[in-house]
Amino acid sequence: TRLNSRGQIAETKNMRTVIVCTVAAILSLFAVAPCVYRESHEEILCEICAIIDDSGEISEVKVTGRRFAPDAGYFTDIKILIDDGKEIIPETDEGYGAGVAAFDFKGGGYCQLFYFASSGGSGGFGYFYVFDCSETQTVTLFDYRKFDNVYTAEYADSYQLKVFANGKLFTTYNEYGDRNEIDSRDKNGATANDKKPYVTDLNFVEPVFVYSQKRYRLNIWQNVIGSVQTNVVGRIITTLAYDNDYGSFKQLFVSTGGK
Question: How far apart are CA 90 and CA 87, in angstroms?
């Protein structure tokens, strides 16, 4: 059947209505997309004021980051911003609870920046740095990734656990683990699942003030593990002090204790 011009116009209008309705439906799908995904904006995680060079002037320091997901406590793209325009991006620029504090590790009368963040999960591992911002270029004085773990561990007779440093016996723990775990082992420390003891890499770092020197040191904590992360048998604490002649932190002494 041949349509007249009026019928053709009516058909065109109907087609246009269908197209408009289809486009509107498609656009409505995209309209809800922001509820499913939204770009994280930069947030201030920490803010301090400190003297960080020999000018004696107080600087404002901020730590910023972006949430990994909406309402998440885990942040990425973490930066340290200083009011003189310096921007520091830690090599590990993500984590929980990121922040910064100011301590005088060098004994120069001004502070260095101690940065920290947590990996989350069991074991309580963290990411730690010390930055010196006293010169034009920021210098990293301490980087947690470069701390060497020289310790190994193994089971021994009579339910003991021995720790070795560079292959030499360092310390021995008696009756390691909880009662149920101890009772499940034979006298040589063997278990059904044959899990091995070990010493963790750097687990936690704390600045410690030395009153006689009017400066701070770093205590590096490592966990001695009997089988799994929750089975902490003891801890090894390595104390580092910044050596101005050497230009970096150096080990002073090591101590150990139970959990």
Answer: 10
